[in-house]
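Researcher: For the record, we're logging two predictions in this thread. I'll number them. Prediction 1 follows.
Model: Prediction 1, sequence and structure:
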Amino acid sequence: MIREIIPLDQIGSVRFSEDHIICNYPLRTYSELLLLSAQIRKNLKKYSTRKILIVTDDSFEFVATLFACWSLKCIPVIAPDKLPHTIKQLEDVVACIVSNSFNEYTGKLRLLWKDCEETEPIKPFFIDSTTSAFELFTSGTTGIRKSIPKTFRQISNELNVLEMLWGEKIEDRISIGTVSHQHIYGLLFRLLWPLCRGTPFTSRASFYWEEIISNVNLSLCFIISSPTHLNHFSSFHDYITKNNEGKKLVLFSSGGPLNNAVSIDILKSFGCAPIEVYGSTETGGIAYRQQTSEKDQAWNVFPDVLHRTVAGTLQVQSPFLLGNNLWQDTGDLVTIMENGQFRLHGRSDRMIKVGEKRLSLDRLELLLQEHKYINESAIVTFPQNGRLILGAIIEVNEVACEDLHVNGKESLLEDIKLHLKNEFVLDSLPRKWRFLRKLPVDDQGKRNHLKLTELFQPSPKTVRTPAIIETIPITGGERYLMTIPNDYELCEGHFRNFKVVPGVCQLDWVEMLICGMSNKNLKINNIPKIKFHRFIRPGQTITLDILYNENKNNWIFNIYNGTVKFTSGRIMVI
């Protein structure tokens, strides 16, 4: 049954019962939300009507801060991430930062949180639907942030469509996911839709499926995810079906097209194909699809969204746009079919010239992903010595790890180039290649051009890490070939006249590399086992293997050179 959901501009004046569950995992009630909101509001009063940056990973705290801002007619600003250069760009835009966890911030803005002396809940407040509900800043591909304001009316229009399309499917399920509320897709699907329909959301997005399936009952939830995460979802089939009480999963995906084979694999494994949503921060939702066969790849347009092509590029008119009678260019190349559905063909701005040849970066990525050894690929461009260079970042599968171990990178590269030769001439292929076990993504599962191009830049000199010559994916982890500089600073002062790398320094390497592999800021919590076999000295070349042990939820590392062992151990991180 489709619910009458609360318009977002009425969320401050309509009251739930005090024990109404707003958040699950952990359990938080409506009365707790109103009190926390009042406590935040008390410290925020002097910034009334100004723009306020919200930095919190906790979705319950995020909603409480939204309430505090809206009651004071402040405009919440939502950054795509917490990276220093992102926050730096926003310092001249906002009046202050509201955060319970942003300890690393050292900029000029004041950092606020709650005033625990406030014991009365926030009073009902009223909102003009034409005013800004919040302002988003897209992550962009160039690093320059773009402001996207969203009114309460725009958001309410979109939430109504979500309820009309899928309200009956999600019933009273709890929203969980791998996508943060800092992204418009996560904000709408994981947070505001449940809030306005009166069903619970979870407090945090989880980057790992292991984390999600060990903490929640999936039969009680609907899942908000992305292609990056869903590529690995079927590997958890046995555990999920064993603990799912026979109910079908409900999966949503956005952030890019899901590979057809992945969608069908999930359908075969769980009896449901993910519902894919296509849109952007600028346009809101545009279309959706469920790929249940190889033929099922066209997109269905959202109700009340008009669409057309200009020079092959999709344009839309929509009630989710600020000016809903204006045409918005998406930058996506499409073919519109007779029945109104359309097919995506990639970005119009990802056509480049290499030499005198035109090249589609989207087509190159798509063809790479058809190779038997490749899960995902990303092609980036960057200047080097006055020339435009193409770089390919390849996420390899388990079979490729074994092949890399036996035959090396050059053999795999030759096989990939052979796979591409029917569509791309050798001169137009990427000059630089990186093979990884997982593509680096942010908390929303999205790629960032700057982060990807950094993989091809020379590593900055640092006293903490030796020079990494090569990174090779191996089954369950990664292998790093490293050299210890002769003047490596951390070897100084350990033993007089006998320079060695301290054990604590080796653990520091392992910790830093695990953070990079997992894309999370982790710290060593426990060292159940460690053994120092031989000293590591300046000038030596070493190999460091790091593997994740799923059965025991810990990391195994080995440092060696050929048959010579230096250090080995097992650690746990938090």
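Researcher: Logged. Prediction 2.
Model: Prediction 2, sequence and structure:
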Amino acid sequence: MADIIQLLPDHVANQIAAGEVVQRPASVVKELLENAIDAKATSVTLVIKDAGKTLVKVTDNGSGMSITDARLSFERHATSKIKSAEDLFNLHTKGFRGEALASIAAIAHVELKTKTEASEIGTHLTIEGSKVISQDPAVVPKGTTISVKNLFYNIPARRNFLKSNPVETRHIIDEFHRVALAHPSVAFQMHHNGSDVFNLPSSNSRQRIVNIFGSKTNEKLVPVSEETEILKIEGFVLKPEYGKKSRGEQFFFVNDRFIKSPYLHHAVSSAFEGLIKNDVHPGYFLFLEVDPHSIDINIHPTKTEIKFDDEHSIYAMLRATVKHSLGQFNIAPVLDFERDKGFDTPYDYSKKQPTAPSIEVDKDFNPFKERAKQGNINFPFKREQTASWESLYVGLKDENTAVSNLGDIEFESEEVTGSLFENTDAETGHITFQIQNKYIVSPLKNGMMVIHQNLAHQRILYEELLKNITVKEAVSQQLLFPLQLHFSKPDLEIIEKIREQLEHTGFIFSELKDETIEISGIPVLILESHVVNLLNQLVHDIKEEVPDNGFSQNDMLVKSMAASMAIKTGVSLNREEREHLINQLFACKEPTVSPTNKPVFTTMDVSDLDKKLM
């Protein structure tokens, strides 16, 4: 039998390796930013066009490369980070495999400009699909500039699998956040399609978090700090009241490397047990330092998973540290950049024993002593004779003027705006009731119908909002006091893009700038207290998947809004509300299914009951 196994050509092997290393433009951004950090850069600039599909450009002021190193850096398994197998367990750098640049060059047009501080002239290298096109001397500043153009140009199938530009941009921003948070001492800039996205100066960890996620984040942070023989923990967790329904601001860094660890996440979540609801996720920015010999990073191509030698001890220490910080965050001094530190209690006072204040009283003190000696004491104030206390009730009638029925007293409603259901006084005669505050049971001629109240309300709101956003004739309710909400810059950009659709549903934005949104009007279908949660959920859904402009985007927005606004399981409804919900449901075009195609109700005949009970 003839031999059938053969070695793959280098360009094919590089493209296969690129499938593991480069999955989307964000993968290229991650590798290039980490290379800049390894080059000891103090300033890094990221420029992207068309969500990285057209251009990803990273410029740094690091050590740069010589002519030979510039050429060798694009060869497979060529690296300066390790020299032996033992070095894999003593890593202090980001990249070490020597696959990133070779994989990127195999599927894109790459242009490299670099120069070391000792060299008088730099190098300009051009590569297309692993093939070196040119290598010439060039006058360039110290450091490295690498441009990756036309990603996946020679693999159209991979390019077709990329998501829309907003989704790919979101992934790039996530990678940018991870690298920028891990290295607060490095200045970072990011530009997308000619506009500035981030300008982060060199700072400390707290300031870096605030610069990325907005100034309001500062008041949410709780410091976490602990150091033991095997682990050092620094960072912050968000106060329990700022937990979110979605997993957003959750960052683990081990030796300044971002990782994903469900095991450690469970440790943090268990520390919040009893402080947040079961369906709410805590936020955290935790930096762990361990001995490099006690971890294995080389278990995943993206290097975002780490294997610890002693996971149980790290779990226990992390949980205890976070729990300890949460137990004293309300009495710990608050760090604020604009606060007068003179009002803070010094830390030294925590170790001092309390002492009772001493009080000296002069028992012989008499303010009239001197005047008494002169014999001219005069009291200027004379107490007036007051009427007896019975005179307070003179003139009151003896008739019983008390309110005979407390039900007649009308109180001002605590609701500011909106109502879940319209009030109806009409007696319909139907008998309905709830089961577990989740299902509504209504009798039929030959049986009964069981309705899921949350899914039913979602269908009602979905059709109403979709009609408003399509016809553009939504009714708004004006707010007496405008709402001022704070969002991070990326979230604010998302809301800006869907502002027109939100206005068609009834929102009125009076101001939208500088991480602040001012809303002066909201749809009549929503309560004022629900606006913040609705917008947060809407931003999260858009981050996950943004469809193209048109009906599909409107449909996604309306589905997200309907899910946020619908009555939840556990809400008790009175008879009028239950009947009104049923009437509205069967006035819809598609009452049988929810917006996510789940059945809204089911029916049960008397014959079905007879089969079960006879």
